[in-house]
Every structure is written in C-alpha cells, then in structure tokens.
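Write out the 3D structure for:
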Amino acid sequence: MNSITGRKQTARRSGFTLIELLVVIAIIALLISILLPALGKARKSAQMAVSLANLSQIGKGGFSYQTDNKGFLPITLTYKRGTAPGPTSGNLIGYCTWSFAGKNNDAAWRLNSRNRGFDVEAADRPMNKWMYSEIVCEAPDAPADMPADYPARSRLQMPVFKDPSDKVTHQFNWPNPTFERSAYQDVGNSYQWNAKWYEQIDPSGGVEAVLFNKGTRRFPVADAFAPSRFVWVHDEYADITVYEVSDDARVVNGYGDVNRSLLCFMDGHAKYLAVIPGRKEESYRNGLYTFIFDDLRIPTE
C-alpha cells in the first residue's frame, strides 16, 4: 500500500476582509470629522487676518489722506463723471459708498440705466493714489464715461480692497444679493465708507450737497467725537444688519457668522465686531462703535 505523505498547506491571505475595510473607512471618516472643523477654523482665521490687515492699511491710507487734505476723509458725492464738481463733471447723482477708493466697477453698471451714474472710475476715486501710488488708473478723459468693454475694467486689480470672504455683492440691487460676483468684482471694493452719519444730518432720504459738505467738515475735528469708536469704513454686512427692522434679524456674513462685521475706525485700527440690528439708537451708536456723530455740531458756514 502506497501512502503519500503531504504537508498541510496554509494559504497566505492578501488584502482586507470586508469588516476590516469598513473599520478603516469608519476611522478615516472619524478623523475627517475631527479635522475638518479645525481646518475650517484655521482657514477662517487666515482670511480674517488678511481682511483686518487690509483694513489696517486702508486706515493708514485714510490717515495719510487726512494729513494731506486738511483733515478731510475721501468721503465724496458722486457726479456724472467724477467725485468732485468741476468743469468736466456733470450733474450731481448722489453718493455711493465705494467712491473713496478701489478698482473699476463691473461692466454691468455701465449697461444698467438705473446704476450707470454710480459707475465711478478708479481714476476718480480720491484715495487710490495714497494706496497705490505706483499704479496709473487708466480712464477716458473726462467728461467721457468708461465704456463697458474698456480693458482697464478687468485688468486693474487692487487686492488691498478685497476681503477674502467676499463672495456675493449686495450693491448692484441693494440690499438684495447678486450671486454672480463679489462686491469687489461688482464695485471695485469689498469695503464701503460709512454713510449713516449723513442720514443723521438729513433723514429725508435725499441728497443735499450743502448738508453733505457740512457733514464732511465734521471729520477734521475728529477729536470731538471719539475717533477710536467712529467707523468710517466697513464691510457691506454692517449696513445690511443695522438696516434690518427686526431686533431678531440674523444676517449671515461671508465668514458664516451672524450679525458681525469688519469695521475700520478713524484712528486707523480695525476690528471684527458684533453689529446690532433693528435700526435702533444702539444699532448706530454704543460702547464699541458709532456710525453717527455723538453730537450734531455741524458747521454753519
């Protein structure tokens, strides 16, 4: 009788079993769920640091502008072509809060009859030369307006005026959002000058050049109204929030926060603060900030 002596062969296993694979996937998912909020927070902090640095530079630029312009800030009315009356400007249009600085508006402003008057060329924005002295802002000779297809509309960029969280503009159809572009792309600036002080002077809803100019003459005497609390530039969410009628309004900004805004004060510092909705006195003036004058000592002449 022949016998065959054999060894029991042990097969080597390759790969993972289904259970092991599911365990690995579960661990990876858990790690992602732990890390994503931290990564999101880090990204938000980085964007916030950039925007506060931008506003700090704008604050310094505003201070330099004041030094060279008898204490006035670059807060202007808007004329048919330009931000100051003169032989090449047309009639008074009103005011737009991006007129102080920034790149050119999106071409949509030139093509829209309702908004065309507020298509303020970068060449006419008074503080640009204090922020970007090396840049020549191209534009047609006044009083000619900039055509919609003018190359400088898209070519000119001024990153200091761009908030990294700025994804949606509310300026083109104020206060409703226009999702196709950011405020920076829309009006050339993520930040706007504070206009609520003028509404304090003239609550009629119109624009009176004499009253406006008297109001701007309050700024050279900034020590009379707490420059460390007086906001002169802010992101567009400040306006949106304080104009909300309801005390319970919840305005979500580009950082995903509720009722908070980036503010630049007259003394040059910048902060990210809670803003109070409801159009109340404390919405405009409180212990942290003020958008309006603490007094109305408007020059009579």
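Residues 1-8 have pLDDT under 50 and may be disordered.
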